[in-house]
Write a structure and sequence with these properties.
InterPro entries: Acyl_CoA_acyltransferase, GNAT_dom, N-acetyltransferase. By secondary structure, the protein is of the alpha+beta class. It is about 25% helix and about 25% strand. It has 5 helices and 8 strands; from the N terminus they run E-E-H-H-H-E-E-E-H-E-H-E-E. It has an 8-stranded mixed β-sheet with strand order 1-2-3-4-5-6-8-7, sandwiched between helices. Strand 1 and strand 2 form a beta hairpin. The chain is globular. The relative contact order is 0.17. Bound molecules: coenzyme A (COA).
Length: about 180
């Protein structure tokens, strides 16, 4: 994971119909720990991490870095969206020089099934398209992760390839930049 690149960070909080995308704050710490400790969240992304380890390791203000948005519903964190540069050593690329912007999403299980991840991801992609309009965005998910696969399709990602990684089939997709017409 490398820096996102020439973008102004942090942007002003982004408001959607129901949500706010913003920088992490100290009050989000418990939700960060919950996200990484949740067996449900971890099912397709390497499993949960021990809560006591997280309690020791997570800083007072967690996750503050370019490309990481906390998703806030009525003042409380329900998940996060990330836009990072994809490591060149990993399989799955659409540019010869690699380092593509890659979307990630993780929401607390009680916030699944309401369209919040879709709403927040669309807003983050909109922000990225304004900042770096010519760049595609890629996404990699376990093919068995039905919710993630449905979300990727809804957001306009299309399959580039599938490959084996971490002992499972991975789906790798791209969302091309919208080219202005006329
Ligand atoms: C992947 C993940 C973010 C998807 O969350 P999600 O809530 O299913 O995704 P969406 O925001 O697209 O919500 C879709 C659901 O909301 C429902 N919904 C309810 N109200 C809605 C509304 N107002 N607008 C849109 N959808 C709505 C949809 O019908 C759909 O339900 P269904 O899945 O039962 O068909 C979530 O499962 C997660 O955090 N997983 C763990 C982390 C992970 O695996 N991340 C992927 C790493 S690559």
């Amino acid at each position: 994971m490398t820096e996102l690149g020439p973008v102004a960070w942090p942007p002003a909080p982004i408001r959607t119909e129901r949500l706010v995308l913003r920088e992490p704050e100290a009050r989000d710490r418990a939700a960060f720990i919950e996200l990484f400790a949740s067996p449900e969240v971890g099912t397709y992304i390497g499993g949960p991490r021990p809560r006591d380890e997280l309690e020791r390791a997570v800083p007072e203000v967690p996750g503050r870095r370019p490309g990481l948005f906390v998703i806030d519903l009525d003042g409380a964190m329900i998940g996060m969206i990330t836009l990072d540069r994809r490591d060149a050593e990993r399989p799955g690329h659409v540019r010869p020089d690699a380092g593509e912007a890659e979307l990630g999403y993780m929401f607390l299980p009680e916030a699944w099934g309401y369209g919040y991840a879709a709403e927040a991801s669309a807003a983050a992609l909109g922000w990225f398209a304004d900042a770096l309009p010519t760049e595609p965005v890629v996404l990699c998910t376990r093919a068995a992760n039905d919710r993630s696969m449905r979300l990727a399709a809804k957001l306009g990602f299309t399959e580039v390839e599938r490959f084996e990684e971490y002992g499972a089939e991975q789906w790798f997709g791209v969302r091309s930049p919208v080219t202005p017409s006329g």
